[in-house]
Amino acid sequence: MTIKQCTPEDVQDLQKISVETFTETFEEHNSPEHLNAYLETAYNLERLEQELVTPSSRFFFVCFDEEVAGYLKVNTEDAQSEAMGSDALEVERIYVKKKFQKHGFGKKLLTKAFELAAEQQKKKIWLGVWENNENAIAFYKKKGFIQTGSHSFFMGDDEQVDLIMTKTLL
Q: Is 95 annotated in the active site?
């Protein structure tokens, strides 16, 4: 298992893993129209290229035997999806392919986020997680996150609720 930071040259692999993991996670809970509308907006190549060159956003692949098993996106400063301040790091995306779940890949990516927060002397790390994603919520609680709020998340034009979960760092 290795972690590597993504570069603009990785944009096609990033798009592939993004669409695959998001679809695996949410297709059974959303209409094809809403899912496709989200995928076309969030994961189009132009948008991903822009995100990859944003200085306060970083992407990382976790790989196993040369295969991309999952990825992480973190944001700081003005790249955060909510105004949480300069002392915060956001885990905007953390996804692992189904076949690699329950094997420590998500834990490895989250550990990478904690390392990045420590390097940048952040006081808290936070994320948004869909209110009905019980496995993810349990995972984050186990890692010391607590619910501190909520915000709207749009899947196409379907408004859903993400719980904001935060962990204070020492």
A: no
